[in-house]
Amino acid sequence: MPESGMPFAFLRPLWLLGLIPALLLCGYLYRHHRQHSGWDALLPANLRRALLQHQTGRHYRGRYLLLACVWSLSLVILAGPAWESDNTQRREDSGSLILVLQVSRSMLSNDLPPTRLEQAKRKIRDLLQRYPDRRVALIAYAGSAHLVAPLTRDHDTLRNLLDALHPDIMPVRGQQLDQALQLAADMRSQRGDSATQVLLLASSIEGVSSESLSVSARELGAALRIIGIGTADGAPIPLAEGGFMRDDQGRILLPRLDEQAMLDFARSEGGDYRRLSTDERDLQQLLADSSNQPSDAGLGVQRQDQGHWLLLLLLPLAALGARRGWLLLILCALWLPLPANALSWQDLWQRPDQQASALLQAGQAAEAASRFEDPQWRAWALLQAGDYRAAADAWGALASAEPDNAQYHFSQGTALALAEDYQGALLAFEATLTQAPDHTAARHNRQQVEAYLASLQEQADPDEEPAQEQPASENAEPDTQPGGNNPGEAEVDGASDEGQASSGESSSAGGLDPAAGAQGSSSGDSQGQSTGALPGELIASPEDAGDATQHGGSGGGGSSRQQIEQQQAVQQWLRDIPDNPAELLRRKFLYQHLQKPDGRPR
Fold it and tell me: How many beta carbons lie within 10 A of that of residue 435, not counting itself?
């Protein structure tokens, strides 16, 4: 359907023609059913009047009204109603725009403070803001011409690259305006769009042969627009080391704006010229034709079919017409009690294990342990919460269910050691080594527990008072400060061999192994909860120690501190990398110049 200014329209209006036969059919069915019932075909004609009692049409009227509504609504949906329209006209602004910016040393003159180059950049930023939907390309030239950015609507990237343009990044000094215009003409011819315009921002056209300029002006024709940057008086070019730029004879260079030459060049083939202004008058005058004549492809009201929303009305109507007694059914349904399930909003989207995993990552280990349904994850959460006795019981239940799983025995021994049940921990570590003799972490942890028990035995003197044993019991008390670095802190990390993966792995909490996580998480817990309980560290395999650092939040281990220091060093190195694209553009321009040293456009 042709688009118009109406706020409501049908995308497929021919379907509406079906409304007439649909309503006529409903009327015919109503009249036929009113006059003839199903018994008319079964009873003899002479008995119909005596046996049949004809009811009024009011009994059947609602049924056929409902049928008419369903048919009518179905046809309206098929017609494609579009009552919401996007009236924003996306302006293509008569094609695209190719910006050609002079980035030679003369653009550093400060007759337009701070410099001519900065004033040109500001003008380009104003242009990008004025035409946010226009495709814009950027070409920079000095002694060679280079494409900075192709035609794009990503104006943020253009602004970023524009800030990096400076004469210092150009590979060759000079002014090759003919190369830049030729590159713009090639881009324009490749698009095949006669509406694409070329806007040149330059301070002069000196140093270029008139023949080359004539060829460029002939190819661009009326699409060439020029903005002159500078003043007729000019100003010297300051140098970074002090002083001003001089020519070969030692005289200070004073670049001036030759407006007459630039005006003649622009209008030789139908183009136009304006001097740089502080407002937008220059852009309005140069690009007035393009802004006032938007292309047909860019205009128009875009309508979207919204008929699918009417299906929500059609479904209950269709359901009502399918069965009798629907009104009574709805009334009964309203009085039905709601199910007594205490569901929360999160229960609709996440399983209990997923909710518990989020709580565990947020540091709420106790609440996570109460929500975990997976027994391995629940045992790990108990260990994280510091409830070592409950964690040991949980791992013990798993080890009883699967006595051949060495990982369960090792995790039980870890929890028992943290709960100061050293004899039970030795038995659990012994069971681990029975199932997996090469379990180095269990062997090492058993040695640490045995060494600690031996030290306690040596300190126990029968002649001394029992009160002298108080330091040992004090050392066995857990320290509630997490992540401490006191001498004698114990780190308990989980060690899981590759061939002894737990059969109860759960992917609901991020794909981690709770058995290994339990061992790794106890690293920080042992430091904070069992400071001084063991004389040395209960180390684990390097792989599990890394997993514990990442998933269990352990702190204080040598490998953990080393990994944290490495991550900090990498982050500091990344922060030191400059994000200025000037170096990238400088290398790109130099590479392009070396690839084509004959001076052809690149």
Answer: 18
3-state secondary structure of 146: strand
Cα 223-225-231 angle, rounded to 5 deg: 165
Question: What pLDDT is stored for residue 118 in this prediction?
Answer: 94
Cα 407 to Cα 398, 490, 498: the distances in Å are 10, 20, 11
- DSSP H helices, 335-439, are 352-361, 365-371, 375-385, 388-401, 406-418, 422-435
Chain-centre distance for alpha carbon 17: 47
Nearest Cα residue to 239 out of 297, 168, 309, 171: 168
d(CA 94, CA 193): 9
Q: What is the DSSP letter of 552?
A: I
Which runs of consecutive H residues, i.e. helices, occur in 168-248? 177-191, 210-220
Q: Which residues pair with 197 in a beta bridge?
A: 97
Preceding amide of 114 cis, omega within 30? yes
- Name the nearest CA neighbour of 382 among 242, 374, 392: 392
pTM: 0.46
Identity of residue 522: S
Bridge partners (DSSP) of residue 252 are 246
> Can you give the C-alpha Rg of the chain in angstroms?
42
CA dist 219 and 315 (Å) reads 64
What residues of the chain score a pLDDT lower than 70? Answer: 1-7, 32-43, 45, 48-60, 83-94, 289-303, 317-345, 347-348, 461-565, 578, 597-602
**Lookup: tokens for 58:** 């009011």
Q: CA-CA distance, 187 to 149, in Å (whole number)?
A: 12
Residue indicated by tokens 């001498």: 487
CB count within 10 Å of CB 440 equals: 15
What is the full DSSP assignment across 330-350? HHHHHTSPPP-----TGGGTS
Q: What is the Cα 231 distance to its own chain's centre?
A: 48
Q: Check residue 138 and give its pLDDT.
A: 96
Two structure tokens written together for 528: 């904070």
Cβ-based neighbours of 261, under 8 Å, separated by 6 or more: 204, 205, 206
Which alpha helices (H) appear in 221-287, and where do they start and end? Answer: 259-267, 281-286
Cα–Cα distance between 304 and 472 in angstroms, integer? Answer: 78
The pair phi, psi for residue 562, each rounded to 5°, is -65, -40
Backbone angles phi, psi at 261, to 5 degrees: -65, -40
CB atoms within 10 A of CB 75: 15
